[in-house]
Specification:
Blueprint (H helix, E strand, L loop, with lengths): L2 H29 L1 E4 L2 E4 L3 H24 L15
Antiparallel strand pairs: 1-2
Helix pairs in contact: 1-2
Length: about 80
């Protein structure tokens, strides 16, 4: 994968990560759910937001490594030789 594509993906991951940090902060400040009269609004659950943050941080690290080395994470395959 070329450097331009890796950089574009990295920028997108950083943008999404920033949005998830803001969502986590809003939830921690008590904006997870509220009620006005008979109406109630519930936002995303904190554990799911934190899980997505961990995944995005992991992906960000992978992309930064790929950008530094010029290649993405290596994939390994198992080959099974068969005598037919």
């Amino acid at each position: 994968m070329n450097r331009g594509r890796i950089q574009a993906r990295l920028d997108e991951v950083k943008r999404r990560l920033e949005m998830y940090y803001k969502a986590e902060a809003a939830i921690l400040e008590g904006a997870q759910s509220y009620q006005m009269g008979s109406r109630q609004l519930s936002r995303a659950a904190l554990p799911s937001v934190q899980a997505e943050i961990r995944e995005l941080e992991k992906r960000k690290q992978e992309l930064e490594t790929a950008l530094a080395t010029g290649t993405e994470k290596r994939k390994s395959y198992r080959i099974l030789y068969r005598d037919l």
